[in-house]
Amino acid sequence: MEYIRGRRRESMHDLAFIKTIAGVVNHMHTFTRDLPGLVNGGIYCGPLWPEDDRTPLLTKEGFEHRMNAGLTESFGKFAVATTPLVFTHCDISARNLLFDDYSIWLLDWEFAGYFPRSAEIATLRLDVGKECANLDFYRDLEYAILEEKPLAPQESEQLECWREFVLNHVRAYR
After folding, report:
1. Closest to 84 (Cα-Cα) out of 154, 25, 131
2. Is the pTM of this model over 0.85?
3. 110-132 burial, b for 16+ CB within 10 Å, e for fewer?
4. Distance in angstroms between the alpha carbons of the first and the last residue of the chain
5. 161 CB-contact burial (10 Å; exposed 0-12 / middle 13-18 / buried 19+)
6. Which of 116, 127, 105, 128 is CA-nearest to residue 157?
C-alpha cells in the first residue's frame, strides 16, 4: 500500500471536476476482458452482490446465469453475451477520491473488476452505501459519464436488471 499526499474536497459540486472524473471512468471502460470478475480473482463482493453468496463466476455464461437466478421470472432476462466486460471501479464515491494541485487519485479498488458497463452506472444510480450529502455528486457524475458515452439499449435493459437484482437480495436487519 502506498501513502498519497492529497486531500478530500469540501464540495463535490464543481461541474468541471465532475466531467474530469467522468472522463477517467470512461477511459477505464475502454479496457476489456473476456472473463467476468474481480481484478484480484476473488469472490464477487460489493454493493451489487449479496453478502452471503460466495459463488465464483468464471465465465460470461455463469455470470449471466447467476444474474438471472436473482431476478423474478416476470421481470425478464439479464443478457451479457454480446456486451463487453469493461474495467469498472464499482465504488466511486467522494470518500474514495483524493486531490492535490495537479492530480486526482481514485482509491479503494476492492470491488474493481471486469463487468458490463451497466454495473458501474448501477452503483451510482442505486445509491447503495452512499453518503446522503453527496447524492447530487453521484447523479451529476452519472449524467457526465453518459453524456460522453450514452448507454446502448442492451445496457439500459441491464441497468433495470441490476436494480431488480439488488432489491431482491437486500435484507432488513432488526
Report:
1. 154
2. yes
3. bbbbbbbbbbbbbbbebeeebee
4. 36
5. buried
6. 116
DSSP-derived 3-state class of residue 7:
strand
Q: Give the CATH number, domain containing residue 135.
A: 3.90.1200.10
Q: What is the helix (H) or strand (E) element at residue 105, kind and residue range?
A: strand 104-106
**Cell representation of residue 67:** 444474474
Q: Name the β-bridge partners of 115.
A: 86
Does residue 4 lie within any of the structural domains?
no
CA pair distance 165, 169, nearest whole angstrom = 7
Show the domain range for 102. Answer: 15-169
Q: How many domains does the chain have?
A: 1
CA 19 to chain centre: 17
Of 115, 135, 132, the closest CA to residue 35 belongs to 115
Q: What is the pLDDT of residues 109-127, one digit of tens each?
A: 888 999 999 999 999 988 6
Tens digit of pLDDT for each residue in 72-106? 877 778 999 889 999 999 999 888 898 887 888 89
Residue with cell 479503494: 108
Q: Is residue 36 part of a domain?
A: yes
Give me the residue label for grid cell 442492451.
154
CA proximity to 169, closest of 79, 27, 45: 45
Q: Which residue has the cell 450529502?
A: 133
